[in-house]
Amino acid sequence: MTEYFTPIPFPLWQEDKQAFADALGRSFRETGFAVISDHPVNQETIDRMMVASKDFFALPETTKETYHDAKGGRQRGYTPFGVESAKGNPNADQKEFWHTGRALPEDSPYKKTMKDTPSVGEVEGFDEATRAFFEAMDAFGADLLRGVALHLGLEENWFDDKVNFGNSILRLLHYPPQDNPPPEGTVRAGAHEDINVITLLLGAEEAGLQALHRSGEWLSVSPPAGSLVINCGDMLQRLTAGVLPSTTHRVLNPAPERAKFPRYSTPFFLHFNQDVMIEALPQCVAEGGTAEPPITAQDYLMERLREIGLAA
What we know:
With about 300 residues, the chain is an alpha+beta fold. It has helices at about 10-15, 15-30, 45-55, 60-65, 125-150, 160-165, 235-240, 280-285, 295-305, and strands at about 10, 35, 75-80, 95-100, 170-175, 190, 200, 210, 220, 225-230, 250, 265, 265-270, 275-280, 295. It has 9 helices and 15 strands. Strand 8 (about 210) and strand 9 form a beta hairpin.
C-alpha cells in the first residue's frame, strides 16, 4: 500500500461527516481512488455472493452462453471470455463476466430501457446472493456520494434523487488461470477509465490492479482485508469539470508463479438515473475545471459502450 491509499475508516462518517468528506475528496483529487476501511457491507453477504459467483463461472460454457445477450449490449447476464476490450486497445481483455442490474418497480418508466436481470436456475441461491450484494453496495454507494456532495459544497442529499433508480451494475468478473503464456501485448484488463459515477470494488484474492497517477507512475492498489476500493468514473469527472478525475487503471497479467490461479473481482458500477443531465458544476468550473457540453446519462452511457465493444 502506498502513501496515496491510506484507508479512510467509514465509522468517521458517523462521527464527523465533514472530516470524512474532506478525506475522501482529497484522495479522489490526488489519485481518483480512495480506500475505505471498516465498511458496512456484511461479510456473510459478501461470502454468499463469492460462492455463487465461482459456482456460476464453473458451469459449462454452453450453459453460460444461454445467458449471453449480445443484442442488448451485454448490460445484463453473461459476457464470454475475450469480448470486451479497453477503449482504443485492439486486444481483448482476458476475462468473462456476469452483470446484475437494478430490480425496478413494475410501473417504472425506466423499464423501457433497463432490462431485468435473468434468473440463474443452475446455481442454487445465485439470484438471492447477487441481489443482496447489489443492494448492499447500492446503499453504501449512496452514503459515499453524500460525502462527495459535502466535499463539493453541495447539500448532503444532492445525489440522492439522481441515483435512486440509476442503471447501476454489479459485475462478477472471472479471469481464468493462464495455463499458457497470454498473447503478447495483452493484460487481464487493459488500461481504461470507468464510465459511471463511482465504482465500489472489493479487494480481489489475486493482485494486479494498478492506477495511473498524473505523474505517470503506475500505482498498485492493494487494499487491506475488510476494505473497499472506490474510484471516480467518467460521469463524476464530467460533472465536476475534471476536479475529481476518472483515473486510468488496469489489471496486469499475474507473475508466472501465480498464473495457474484464477482471479475473481466484483466491481459495483454506480450510475445516474438515465434522464439525469450531466452538466459541469459552476463551482468546479470556477475552481479551474474544464466544462464539457451537457449530456444525459443514458446518451453518455451508450456512447461509451459502443467505444468498448459492448454495444453496436
